[in-house]
Design goal:
The chain has nine helices and 13 strands. It has about 260 residues and is an alpha/beta fold. It has two domains: about 80 residues, Alpha-Beta Plaits (2-Layer Sandwich); about 170 residues, Rossmann fold (3-Layer(aba) Sandwich).
């Protein structure tokens, strides 16, 4: 029988020498293999393990509940967040009320890129929004994740190098394996109807679409935040507030002033 992967996470209650050895020995006695182990939060460890049947996992769970040195937190089939937590040694922060919103800060760009790359590898339609202040690294992270996922990326609207507003694609660009990137501010403030016809065509493709500034995007279109599968927030620091006051207060989208803001 082929072995099945599980995610085990526990919180240390009594930190003493040899605790990890005890856990490893227990897994060995149950013929459960350790794939990866890492700290995933303060006082917590996460492990990816391999077991040949569910009975092994049930026995493991029963024994772990009797141990006073640890508290069992999770024992389940691994989710994407579990795998990334073990890989990077930290958990992705998720909004408590809106489960599709994930939060990152700038020093977690490696984790963010890895997270998006895993999303980009999935097949079919997926609409992803990314929020953040100017020059925080939004577009660069999307491009890096595209490279990691071996996806060809196409800017439908962008300000990364220069202002880009596409009104049409060539035939081979209508490929569902491509990744389409839109800047919500550029599309809603500077584009014409031909651009929007293209956006609607792209939205119907069974492909990955990433929209920067999704809040501005939905204010001026028929789409809503409910249409998004994931919302990613990227900040310079945890206390930073993502605001669009400069967008509403200043006509920054005319002339050379537009290029001064890397949204």
């Amino acid at each position: 029988m082929e072995k099945k992967e599980w995610y085990l996470e526990y919180e240390i209650q009594i930190n003493r020498p040899g605790l990890l050895g005890d856990i490893s020995s227990l897994l060995g006695m149950l013929s459960i293999n350790i794939v990866t182990i890492n700290g995933v939060d303060e006082g917590r460890r996460g492990l990816l393990i391999l077991a040949k049947d569910d009975d092994q996992i049930q026995r493991l769970e029963s024994i772990l509940h009797t141990m006073d040195t640890i508290k069992l937190i999770k024992l389940r089939e691994p989710k994407l967040r579990d795998r990334l937590a073990v890989r990077h040694g930290r958990y992705i922060q998720r909004d408590a009320d809106d489960k599709k919103t994930f939060r990152f800060v700038r020093d977690e760009l490696g984790l963010l890129v890895d997270f998006m790359a895993e999303l980009f590898k999935q097949e079919g339609h997926k609409l992803i929004g990314i929020r953040g202040m100017p020059r925080v690294g939004k577009t660069e992270s999307v491009v890096a994740a595209s490279v990691c996922a071996n996806k060809r990326w196409l800017f439908v609207s962008s300000t990364l190098l220069k202002q880009t507003i596409r009104n049409q694609l060539i035939e081979d660009e209508y490929n569902q394996d491509n990744l389409f990137i839109l800047d919500g501010i550029v599309s809603t403030r500077r584009a014409n109807e031909r651009h929007w016809q293209l956006v609607r065509e792209i939205m119907r493709l069974p492909a990955i679409k990433v929209v920067e500034h999704p809040d501005i995007f939905v204010q001026n279109t028929e789409y809503t935040l409910d249409d998004f599968d994931y919302i990613i927030e990227l900040r310079n620091n945890p206390e930073e507030k993502i605001t669009y006051e400069m967008v509403h207060q200043n006509d920054m989208f005319s002339g050379s002033e537009f290029g001064d803001f890397d949204f």
